[in-house]
Amino acid sequence: MNTYYTIDEKYLRAVDKLSYGKTSRALQLLNEIVSNEPLYAKAHFQLGKIYFYDVQDCQAAGYHFKTCMELDASFPDNYHHYLRLVVFLNMEKLAEKVAAKALTVPGVHKADIYELLGLLDENNERFEQALAAYQQAFKAVTSKTHRLNLEAGISRVELKIQRCRIYLYSVAE
Q1: Between 152 and 171, whose confidence is greater?
Q2: CB within 10 Å: which end of the chain, N or C, has fewer?
């Protein structure tokens, strides 16, 4: 049995376990951290990621992401994943709230936030708003791969806008 002297050491051990694919052991360590220190925001963040991506329990993931945001609103890593969950669940009002907060936090990659907002608008067939969000993301992008993904999103939405206009034009005749 390992003895950890600080909560930070236990957290780093859990993150290490995650990096080696030992999700169940990391989950156990993170739950121990939250049991002993419920205000440790980073543990809630890691738990949110595990529940969302690995366990696919959206309710538990949302609880942990929200708790992390409430405990440490300046922790930038949480916002992308929390917003991704909220967009996946199509929770528009919460997405707007989380995105607005995220865009004020230093260290948050704005291109990711705008891209997720664009995806939310695109999924809800608000193509003009989606295009504007993707263009905002494009302004903030720094990675070539991410830039190519955004260009594809912009092209896709422009095509949808064009198809909708053709369809409306045909109906008006």
Answers
A1: 152
A2: N
- CB-count burial class (<10 Å; 0-12, 13-18, 19+) for 139: exposed
For 152, other C-beta atoms within 10 Å of its C-beta total: 11
pLDDT at 24: 94
C-alpha 138/C-alpha 146 separation (Å) is: 9
Residues 152 and 55: their CA atoms lie apart, in Å, by 30
Please tell me the predicted confidence (pLDDT) of residue 164. Answer: 83
